[in-house]
Design goal:
Number of domains of chain B: 1
CATH class of chain B: Alpha Beta
Strand content of chain A: 15-25%
Distance between the termini of chain A: 58 Å
Number of helices of chain A: 13
Radius of gyration of chain B: 18 Å
Structural class of chain A: alpha/beta
Shape of chain A: globular
Helix content of chain B: 25-40%
Shape of chain B: globular
Distance between the termini of chain B: 36 Å
Oligomer: heterodimer
CATH superfamily of chain B: Thiamin diphosphate (ThDP)-binding fold, Pyr/PP domains
CATH class of the largest domain in chain A: Alpha Beta
């Protein structure tokens, strides 16, 4: 087998689509929306050559429904969208979460709220990606910061989705979606597609939602004779609805526990100069690129700055983050929203270290100089002892 | 093939008996519609392992759980969109969608017209009881004029949809309507719809005795279905205006049928032309 790789210049959205295909995605349903449309356009051109399915649906709701329907039939399936479309996806994203149907949703963030600024970058969907659909539900959100990472994390999204039977959101912004960078592609045949795990249990004793030792139920393939029922109603291990409070409590505990139990397999992050960092920057996606530059410059100027970059945004890598803050007196969270991740960081820090936000909502990206200025200001301000009950 | 009874059809062969008793109200027409569907499936000799029944939300949505097949109770208004993904991913499955008047004409109206346009090989059974029964009896897009519902407490002032005309106008290649009183005819209509290679839309004029009938003093279930009988105009008599056998406003039978190209077959041929070989 030829395992040599090739270097190609790819746009972020195209890298996403090609990674999905390499991961085995053979079903794409979507609806045109800026700035994610190149993903659909790439899928429309490539999937017919592979005997896959590309379908442009009548709306965003239908695209998500078709993806879940195809996944229930056995397809490795994906859709992509942006802000307003992501809002419309939430209904059936919740269905996938509740019925435990693996699927991948890409959200290329643009300025909001509402129609906002379709061609400008933003990071305003951090909380919607976590809590966008109604009810308590498990979800995984990955947030790459470069084109090669979009490529790698799109594949990771399919792996996690199949392993944990959970929808996975790949979340990046307009700039990364349209940025062209060099990606190392695996040679044809060198990349193994993601595969779905199917039950081989006896047909009369198979319970479609009975968890395995990892807490994950094993799917039955339609057509294999199991004839199961799938519903968005709260359902028992047999797949049928129940409102028995004792059983529902147990069902919800397992469902919500899927991500908590497997944090080691799900959480990814990247640390730069965190070991002795006194001012710790927490940044993701496009803002992490500016932050990386700012942290290196600060170090060159003798400031003990570091960068903690979550790649898995949800569940947030809490333990790794706590470890990274062990010498920090201040945490700085630069992001292209009004402080969505900052709120989570404040919760984790409980005011120690102190948390500051640097927010930009004008449709432009944060610059290294802006972040550096805040790092220098925060490094110069004397850390004060904080008491329980102090406000930030 | 218009047998009034089928000697070898036993509905219990197609039901999940452990899910009985079902939750439908006494007098509800949906059970008859389900019987007609299962009878049609039996006559077509379909393998239950290769049968998928997809439903939405509402009284009609709960029927899928009773069918001994691969069944999917999806979200409100979206069963056709789920079924579109399922059928394209798995052309080997026979996919039947059960929906209601609110599910498919209100919240799911967009999905219905585009399913009609695409002509993917799905059979859509719309059970029309003129009301949102599950939520306690609110007006739907097919509620008749002046009827009382909880959201039309002074009588319905809105015009109603003719679902079959809508499906025809949107391009459905098979359109039919039948009342539950004519069980063998309904069964035949559904059988023709499933056998048809393309999108089939079948409107079943069902009745909601408990919630809609009671509020409007429409009488018992037999009275309601007999009234429907007088409201319909069977398709075979449709053009004989000088001898109106049943001059009701609702035409029944097969109202449209053409053999235009089926979406899945067209897609697979598109793939083959571009080196895509056999679809999954």
């Amino acid at each position: 087998m030829n395992t040599s790789t090739q270097l190609v210049n790819l746009q972020g959205n195209r890298a996403c689509a090609l990674a999905a295909i390499a991961a085995g995605c053979r079903f794409y349903a979507g609806y045109p929306i800026t700035p994610s449309t190149e993903i659909a356009e790439t899928m429309a051109a490539e999937l017919p050559k592979l005997g896959g399915v590309f379908i442009q649906m009548e709306d965003e709701i239908a695209s998500m429904a078709a993806v879940v329907g195809a996944a229930m039939g056995g397809a490795i399936a994906m859709t992509a969208t942006s802000g307003p479309g992501f809002s419309l996806k939430q209904e059936n994203l919740g269905y996938a979460s509740a019925a435990e149907i693996p699927c991948v949703v890409v959200n290329v963030m643009r300025g909001g709220p509402s129609t906002g600024m379709p061609t400008r970058p933003a990071q305003g969907d951090v909380m919607q990606a976590r809590w966008g659909t109604h009810g308590d539900h498990p979800i995984i959100v990955l947030t790459p910061a470069s084109v090669p990472e979009i490529h790698a994390q799109t594949r990771k999204a399919f792996e996690l989705s199949e392993r944990f039977r959970i929808p996975v959101v790949v979340l990046y912004d307009e700039v990364l979606g349209h940025l062209v960078e060099t990606v190392e592609l695996g040679a044809t045949g060198a990349v193994t597609p993601v595969e779905r795990r199917y039950t081989r249990a006896a047909r009369d004793s198979y319970q479609p939602y009975a968890p395995d030792e990892d807490g994950i139920p094993v799917m039955a393939r339609p057509g294999d004779g199991y004839r199961t029922h799938t519903t968005g109603l709260t359902h028992d291990t047999n797949g049928f609805p129940t409102q028995d409070s004792v059983r529902v409590a147990r069902i919800m505990e397992r469902l919500l526990g899927k991500t908590d139990r497997h944090r080691d397999a799900i959480e990814q992050w990247h640390c730069i100069e965190c070991d002795d960092a006194e001012v710790l920057v927490v940044a993701y996606g496009i803002s992490a690129r500016a932050a990386t530059h700012a942290v290196h410059t600060a170090r060159a100027r003798g400031i003990a700055a570091g960068l903690f970059r979550p790649i898995t945004l949800w569940p947030f890598p809490e333990r790794a983050f706590a470890h990274a803050t062990r010498h920090a007196h201040t945490v700085l969270v630069p992001e292209l929203n009004a402080g969505q991740l900052r709120l989570e960081i404040e919760r984790l820090c409980a005011h120690n270290p102190a948390v500051h936000g640097l927010h930009r909502l004008d449709g432009e990206t944060l610059t290294p100089a802006q972040i550096l200025a805040d790092i220098e200001r925060l490094a110069a301000s004397k850390p004060r002892m904080r008491r329980v009950g102090d406000s930030a | 093939m218009n047998r009034p009874v089928s000697k070898d059809f036993d509905i219990r062969d197609y039901l999940r008996l452990d899910r009985m008793p079902h939750f439908l109200c006494p007098g509800c027409g949906h059970g008859i519609a389900l019987r007609a569907l299962l009878w049609a499936i039996h006559e077509l000799d379909l393998n239950k392992d290769k049968l998928a029944v997809v439903s939405g939300i509402g009284c009609s949505g709960r029927l899928s759980a009773y069918v001994d097949a691969n069944t999917y109770h999806t979200t409100h208004g979206r069963p056709l969109a789920f079924a579109t993904g399922l059928k394209l991913a798995r052309p080997d499955l026979t996919v039947v969608v059960i929906t209601g008047d609110g599910d498919s004409l209100a919240i799911g109206g967009n999905h219905l017209i585009h399913a009609c346009r695409r002509n993917l090989d799905l059979t859509c059974l719309m059970l029309n009881n003129e009301v949102y029964g599950m939520t306690g009896g609110q007006a739907s897009p097919t509620t008749s004029a002046d009827r009382y519902t909880t959201t039309t407490p002074l009588g319905n002032h809105e015009p109603r949809f003719d679902a079959c005309k809508l499906a025809q106008a949107a391009g459905a290649s098979f359109v039919g309507r039948e009342v539950t009183l004519q069980l063998p005819a309904l069964k035949n209509l559904i059988r023709e719809g499933i056998a048809h290679a393309g999108f089939s839309f079948v409107e079943v004029m069902s009745d909601c005795t408990e919630i809609y009938g009671r509020k409007n003093e429409l009488g018992s279930s037999p009275e309601m279905v007999l009234r429907q009988k007088h409201d319909v105009r069977p398709e075979s008599y449709g053009n004989q205006v000088e001898r109106p056998f049943r001059p009701g406003p609702w035409q029944t039978g097969i109202l449209a049928r053409d053999e235009r190209v089926e979406y899945g077959a067209a897609w697979r041929s598109h793939c083959a032309q571009h080196g895509g070989g056999v679809a999954p």
